[in-house]
Amino acid sequence: MKQIEVSIMGQSYLLGCPDGGEPQLRQAVSHVDREMCAIRDAGKLKARERIAVLAALNLAFELASMPAIKPTAATEDGAPAQGEPQPSAEHLDTLISRLDAALSGDGHLL
């Protein structure tokens, strides 16, 4: 696993990234950054922690609102035969834990 440096709302974070996952992680970072900046730029909130919570809620709502995709048949090696797999609850919990760890390193949340 390699580490990549990213910036969210002007704050740098060093994130662990699985091999081959950098494009997806950078896309996720970009999505989170856009969401947080939009909330900040609306001018109602200044605290990074509150902005992060609202952004997380907005993104979770967006994810929950997406139509469910039926699982596809798997190939012999267990990989999906077509389309992209849906994230499992365990995978989402792991991502949330990683976000919590990244945000906990920022001593200037309030």
From TrEMBL:
The keyword Cytoplasm applies. SUPFAM superfamilies: Cell division protein ZapA-like. It comes from the Bacteria. One of its GO terms (cellular component) is cytosol. It is found in: Cytoplasm. Keywords: Cell cycle, Cell division, Cytoplasm, Septation. One of its GO terms (biological process) is FtsZ-dependent cytokinesis. Signal peptide: none annotated. Activator of cell division through the inhibition of FtsZ GTPase activity, therefore promoting FtsZ assembly into bundles of protofilaments necessary for the formation of the division Z ring. It is recruited early at mid-cell but it is not essential for cell division. Homodimer. Interacts with FtsZ. This is Cell division protein ZapA. It comes from Aquabacterium soli.
